[in-house]
Amino acid sequence: MSTPTDALQRLRRVHEDAVLSALRSAGGLSRAQLTERTGLSRTTMFAIVSGLLERGVVIETEGSAAEPRGRGRPAALVSLNPDAGLLLGLDLGRNRVRLAVANAAHQVVATASADLPEEAGPEEEAESAVRLVRAAAAERGLSLGALEAIGLGLVGVVDEHLPPVPLGGERSAVVPARYLPLARRLGEEFGVRLAVDNNARLAALAEATWGVARPVRDMVYVRWSVGVGGGFLAGGRLMRGAHGAGGELGHVCLDPEGPPCHCGSRGCLEGHIGGRGLLERCAAQGVRLPALDALVAAAQDRVPAVCEIVASAAADLGRVLAGTVTQLDPALVVVGGELAGLGSLVLDPIREAITERSLPRSSREIAVVPADLGVNASAMGAIALLLHEEPSIPAHLRPDVP
Amino acid sequence: MSTPTDALQRLRRVHEDAVLSALRSAGGLSRAQLTERTGLSRTTMFAIVSGLLERGVVIETEGSAAEPRGRGRPAALVSLNPDAGLLLGLDLGRNRVRLAVANAAHQVVATASADLPEEAGPEEEAESAVRLVRAAAAERGLSLGALEAIGLGLVGVVDEHLPPVPLGGERSAVVPARYLPLARRLGEEFGVRLAVDNNARLAALAEATWGVARPVRDMVYVRWSVGVGGGFLAGGRLMRGAHGAGGELGHVCLDPEGPPCHCGSRGCLEGHIGGRGLLERCAAQGVRLPALDALVAAAQDRVPAVCEIVASAAADLGRVLAGTVTQLDPALVVVGGELAGLGSLVLDPIREAITERSLPRSSREIAVVPADLGVNASAMGAIALLLHEEPSIPAHLRPDVP
């Protein structure tokens, strides 16, 4: 049950959203116009606008004298602050950090990336990330003073039950221990709110916000790369789970008699079809490849042994996804990650396994499609996370995201 | 993206919820008091209250003279209509119809059930349901004129993509063809709004609203009976899926080489562990039992062959649930249906399989517990559906249900 305080906070948020939404569509409006458009009382409207002004989300300008008004000075106009509202999405991958920046109109205006040093420690990672942000801003002429919030995509589980880390002022964030130095460094450096989530889940959110899953509300996303990750959308909302592990596909048990996995279970999907497993199977067939890029290239060159291994792994993935599809009944299965770049070589076996082994009701109508957004998906998803969670952003989308 | 109309409708709904919530906690309030408590403008408040009065959700009474007021008549008080707000939950099972009735305070005040004739056709089913409702109302002295809405639980898929069936006036509902006569008959007879969902999913919603899953927002519910059904809660919301099949557990493929299933796939969980499959396996061991009740009784009497078969089926169910738990990361797994009544005989093998084969992160903390609500769970869930979906009911819970 909601408490009265929850209800009031939600009401205030809905009111803010209504005000910001009106400003977004109309440009500048007087308080009287805002009152009329939103149905709020004058008292409520003044409180909402004051709060938004204080946070720098809106600004006040002199109204034009052309606006009809009985007498005296023209009413002040409230409008969105053009110098605020830059949103930064950061994706801390296993060996690369990527960023995307969106403006107040929610358009992505910059992307960039940098390698992380082999075996980089948390502090080094934090420095790389900050350096990348500063360099990208300088190159694109973006003022970091206009930065409103940072979304951060991480490898691993983001558990909301962890205690939030203070980041200075009233800011805090829930971050796994591994990423505390990064969170603190970003807090010191930029002094804005931080929202955090798993980067595979964020890639799913990005596909649902800007990519191939834009029209659907129920979606299963799998990222097939060195690791195997996933993200599910149910009724338009990202499923996080009770401990932040919602969307986990890599550790579904494929073979109960299979080899032990680092997670403590046996025969996990990731062990079978993740980058390392694929490279090992190729080596066992006499095809030695240095890394996943090379394996993808060999499959594109139609090296038979590699194609066979990849297709068989895709069928394994499809077997797991068949269960997911039966249980979640999505409108769409989206396959991302490097392996998705192989097109029908991987998509066909996945599609066949789903059609064969899931409830026909769903599988008849289900499409299995490659992801749209490429390598910046998680960084963009980190921005999408802010759009859906940052209270100072018109988030009337929230219950129905995207 | 939300349209402006969506945003306005949502705003109006939030305002109605705020008003109804205030009335629910305070009893009667004047419009001025309501305006003050909700922060709405006088104009908005008058419009909201007029709408609620018109729909008979609230009534207006003379305020007491004791209330301090400058001069003139005491202000009229608005309060919830005690003669409205009866909610009926109907559960159309395979051979039984059950009902539950809740009052305006959302307390269940009556339950009842009736057998459906063997091989009953849709018309006969509709008559049985209406007869049961009338008889229960007469027995409890409930006025059916105070009925505000009916929630209906059905076997099978409730697909929101079907065209809505007109039920008279402005009312309509989305109902599978099999249940059209019932929906029409309920429309004619009671003339109130109808909300429809799958009855296993409704049992899950009931457990989350009144039962064992009340404190959690992420839950996997399985009903193990003649059939095997399920319902998932993600972030406090029931997962329906893109075609109304969300929560399906019975048709997850357990054994790709298994026998064909009526759904068109092979080796489905329901074929292995559903009532018919269990009875067949018992018969193959020389234990002939007429029906599932007898099987449950034999297991309670610790007949060794029956216990062995049930325990092994529970382990199969646990194997499927391990995948579900890894992917959805619930806080709780709830087992309902007749088989759940066998306690540790079924719960232990389920728990073991989940612990062994799901991501330890989740399984370490996950509880596997029997359902609380017994045979009326789906009928109660049909009421819960109304509480969460009926706009004239304080549904500020909606985004955070339960």
Give the secondary structure arrangement, pairings included.
The structure is a homodimer of 402-residue chains.
Chain A: H1 4-26, E1 29-30, H2 31-38, H3 42-54, E2 58-61, E3 77-80, E4 86-92, E5 96-102, E6 108-115, H4 122-140, E7 147-154, E8 165-166, E9 172-173, H5 180-190, E10 193-198, H6 199-209, E11 219-224, E12 228-234, E13 237-238, H7 269-273, H8 275-284, H9 292-300, H10 304-328, E14 332-336, H11 344-357, H12 360-363, E15 367-370, H13 377-389
Parallel strand pairs in A: 4-7, 7-10, 11-14, 14-15
Antiparallel strand pairs in A: 1-3, 2-3, 4-5, 5-6, 8-9, 11-12, 12-13
Helix pairs in contact in A: 1-3, 2-3, 4-5, 6-13, 9-10, 10-11
Q: Summary?
A:
The structure is a homodimer of 402-residue chains. Chain A has 402 residues and is of the alpha/beta class.
Structural overview:
Two copies of one chain form a homodimer. A five-stranded mixed beta sheet of chain A has the order 6-5-4-7-10, sandwiched between helices. In chain A, strands 13-12-11-14-15 form a five-stranded mixed beta sheet, with helices on both faces. The first copy, chain A, is built from 13 helices and 15 strands. The first copy, chain A, has three domains: 4-80, Winged helix-like DNA-binding domain superfamily/Winged helix DNA-binding domain (Arc Repressor Mutant, subunit A, Orthogonal Bundle); 86-202 and 378-400, ATPase, nucleotide binding domain (Nucleotidyltransferase, domain 5, 2-Layer Sandwich); 214-371, Nucleotidyltransferase, domain 5. In chain A, strand 11 (219-224) and strand 12 (228-234) form a beta hairpin. Chain A is elongated. The model of chain A is unreliable at 391-402 (pLDDT under 50). The two termini of chain A are 25 Å apart. In chain A, helix 2 packs across helix 3 (42-54), helix 4 packs parallel to helix 5 (180-190) and helix 10 packs parallel to helix 11 (344-357). Chain A has helices spanning 4-26, 31-38, 42-54, 122-140, 180-190, 199-209, 269-273, 275-284, 292-300, 304-328, 344-357, 360-363, 377-389; strands at residues 29-30, 58-61, 77-80, 86-92, 96-102, 108-115, 147-154, 165-166, 172-173, 193-198, 219-224, 228-234, 237-238, 332-336, 367-370. Chains A and B meet through helix 1, helix 3, strand 12, helix 10 and helix 12 of A and helix 1, helix 3, strand 12, helix 10 and helix 12 of B.
